[in-house]
Input
Amino acid sequence: MAEAMEALVVPMMAGYDAVFIPATTTGKNVAPRIAAKLDVMQLSDITDVIDTDTFERPIYAGNAILTVKSSDAKKVITVRGTAFEAAGEDGSASVEAADAPAGPFKSEFVSEQMVKSDRPELAGAKRVVSGGRALGSKEEFDRLIVPLADKLEAAVGASRAAVDAGYAPNDYQVGQTGKIVAPELYVAVGISGAIQHLAGMKDSKIIVAINKDEEAPIFQVADYGLVADLFNAVPELTEAL
Output
């Protein structure tokens, strides 16, 4: 809970210069409260560290990079995890236990419902297969996207339009208002490539697009593009794999 995290972190900041928080849904909930209590500017969604005071972050849905310099003595920073290589297990940072704040708080944790799946977690997957509104229905999404993802051992993603139409759950959404991914392989099926979607996946190493509209913006960022009817192309691709 944001209240509890703020009560834990703010007193600890007396001995630290900065706190780094993942730019996830939870992180975006916690960080502003900590920054407000410390009376400092929050640095959001950074993708590079220039020096101890200077950072880079994307703006305009990732179409421009802003360099930000902070003069605050204490820094509250959210980090786009996909922009950095994994540190490995041989780091030198210490791990210290801290006592949980006693409260009481105005909000409290009641329960958590986790979606159990054998698939890789979307945000950290090495391969992602995403479907768009062109699939036409949840049934077609499940019939075409899921088997292809199974063959590739990939996570399943979706455009916002597909999620809004009920083809896929909210936690499948890739894009500016969904999850930011940067897999080794991203397969976009029936996704036109709206700027909000591109902001969430254009850092993928290899992008494959399947769309019958050869003018679709997704082809501008794709490494490989197939102009074809997805209802024919996807089953053929799945069978070939």
The two ends are 44 Å apart (CA to CA). Residues 1-83 form a domain with the Rossmann fold fold (CATH 3.40.50.620). The first strand starts at residue 18 and ends at 22.
